[in-house]
Amino acid sequence: MTDTLPGAVTGTANDDYARMIDALRGFLDQLSSARPSPALLREMETTLSRWSGDLDLVQVAEDEREFGRRVDLPGRGQVMSPWLRLDAVSETEVSGTLRFGRYFLGKNGAIHGGAVPLVLDEVLGRAASMAAPALARTAYLHVNFRSITPADRDLRVTARIVSVSGRKRLVTGEVYDGSRLCCDAEGLFVELLPGQQ
Fold first, then answer.
1. Burial class (CB in 10 A: 0-12, 13-18, 19+), 100
2. Closest alpha carbon to 190 in 163, 173, 172, 166
3. Of 33, 46, 57, 143, which is the most buried if we count CB atoms within 10 A?
4. How far apart are CA 195 and CA 78, in angstroms?
5. Which residues contact 66 (CB under 8 A, 6 or more apart)?
6. What pLDDT band is residue 2 in, cutting at 50, 70 and 90?
7. Rounded-to-integer distance, Cα 74 and Cα 56, Å
8. Phi and psi for 62 in degrees, rounded to 5?
9. Of 121, 115, 185, which Cα lies nearest the Cα of 150?
């Protein structure tokens, strides 16, 4: 079974959008570890403002955008959550590689505690939505932090459906750094009714 979601879009593996998102991830990591001079900050602000104006001219409806809908790209082609590629997908389980850049650091080399549930919601939600063609929304997500989640390392992430009762799907998942458990989670996801988005 391939990793598809209702409303998802795909492009070519080597396209302009994919390269731009990779560059944006790199920029955010560099920015998070930098202390730019006032002159560089002013130059960056000017450039970013110009780019925002350019993007204002090419706005599209939510269901026409690529950001967050490109299942062929890590993190679905968006930078709100860390780099994530699912490489094993079935009707009941997903697993893949996860990498937090420095942009997601909290303190002392640990990923910010709010970024970890964000990616677990994504992964558990993907597992919940693979069980049927309809999407499911998060009803609750409980995360247990077992050890620090490090930056700039390939981590393993897994999620599986534990039970299905009507529209409700109970899902569990984990993030590992090698054999060390960083965190585990349990989430309840509710399948959307026809016409809901």
1. buried
2. 166
3. 143
4. 25
5. 9, 11, 17, 77
6. very low
7. 25
8. -55, -40
9. 115
